[in-house]
Design a protein that fits this description.
Layout: H1 2-38, E1 42-49, H2 58-71, E2 77-84, E3 88-96, H3 97-104, H4 114-117, H5 122-134, E4 141-148, H6 159-168, E5 171-177, E6 184-185, E7 188-189, H7 193-201, E8 205-208, H8 213-226
Parallel strand pairs: 1-2, 1-4, 4-5, 5-8
Antiparallel strand pairs: 2-3, 6-7
Length: about 230
């Protein structure tokens, strides 16, 4: 008799112990689902060239930003926006992607002072963007999109540093080269050479947009396919 009671007690303990484990697992799974629902799938930084040489295409650059907002609509994304000319400035801190880009678009203004000193701190801006993506970032994917003519002038940061930093941080780099002139002379590339290399090295891509809406639409569709 005593042996039968002991067996029943063991069975009851096993049963309720299993139920406890199951309940714990259910709670943990619910927490994971909640976290994954709120966690951004993608963190994206946007760098915009506002140097004086972009005078004729500054309005088109604003259109590029709006097109990005439309293209990524529906993707759970957080973003920040940095402008660069003879200085680097954070225009929009972390925010919801579409809202942030649409809000910042009217504030993209030409830096007329940069025409006097001929500085375009592209590498400084890239460094700032990569550091921002690296700190306090919990998204599963990190992307940097550069909108500009493509060349660096001035500053103390070397391209080799930027390339190493982007690769080690697992940041995909995409480049939308915008200009009011041809980006190549014959078969020789004069603008955005290093950015083409950076995009290739990080499994991103660079595109010669110049100021063509058709090229822009094709590029954004392709970016969306390639983003990890």
């Amino acid at each position: 008799m005593k042996r039968e009671i002991d067996c029943r007690m063991i069975l009851l303990r096993l049963l309720f112990g299993s139920l406890g484990v199951a309940a714990t697992c259910t709670v943990l799974l619910a927490q994971e689902k909640t976290e994954s629902a709120t966690k951004p799938r993608l963190s994206l930084g946007v760098l915009i060239d506002t140097s004086a040489h972009q005078k004729k295409v500054i309005e088109f650059e604003r259109e590029v930003v709006k097109s990005l907002a439309d293209g990524f609509d529906g993707v759970k994304t957080e973003t920040f926006v940095v402008r660069y000319a003879d200085e680097v400035e954070l225009l929009q801190d972390w925010s919801a992607f579409g809202t942030g880009l649409r809000t910042v678009s009217p504030r993209i203004e030409l830096d007329v002072e940069s025409g006097k000193n001929h500085r375009t701190l592209l590498y400084e801006a890239l460094n700032a963007g990569l550091l921002k993506l690296d700190t306090g970032n919990t998204a599963t994917s990190k992307v940097l999109i550069i909108i500009g003519e493509g060349n660096n002038a001035g500053g103390g940061i070397k391209y080799s540093q930027i390339k190493k930093q982007a690769k080690s941080g697992h940041v995909q780099c995409f480049v939308l080269l915008v200009a009011d002139h041809n980006l190549m002379g014959g078969r020789v590339r004069h603008f955005g050479f290093d950015l083409y290399d950076l995009a290739s090295a990080t499994k991103g891509k660079a595109y010669d947009i110049e100021r063509s809406s058709k090229n822009l639409d094709k590029a954004i569709r392709d970016v969306l396919k390639r983003v990890r």
